[in-house]
Amino acid sequence: MPLSEYEQRVLDQLEAQLASEDPALGSRMASPASPRRGRVALGASAVAVGLAILVLGMVISQLWVSLIGFLAMFGGAYFALTSPKTNPLAEAPAAPKKRSSGKSRLSERFDKRLDDQGGGL
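and the corresponding C-alpha cells:
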C-alpha cells in the first residue's frame, strides 16, 4: 500500500532530520540490511548440493558423506540468511583512552560521592 502525499512528505522530513543530526547513522539506515539476491541464490544452491550429497551418503551407506552433505546444507542456509557484517568502529577513528590513576571508575565515583556528602563512612 503506497504512502499518501502527507505521509511521504513527513517521512522525507524525518530522513532529512536524521541525516543532518547523525550522518553516520543516517547513511547506515539508508543502506539495505537484508541479504543480497546473489548471496541468497548462492546459499540456496549450496543447500541443494548439500541435500544431494546427504541423500547420496544414505544410498551408499557412508555416514561421513551424509555428514558432509548436512554441513554443506547448514553452511548454505547460514550463508543465505545472514548478511556480511561491517565493523562501524573501523570507519571511525578510535578515540584515545584516558588512563586512570590505578582506580576503577566505580571506586572513583564512590569516592566523589563520599566527598560530596561531606565525610567518610
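(Above: one complete record from the training split.) The mean pLDDT is 77.
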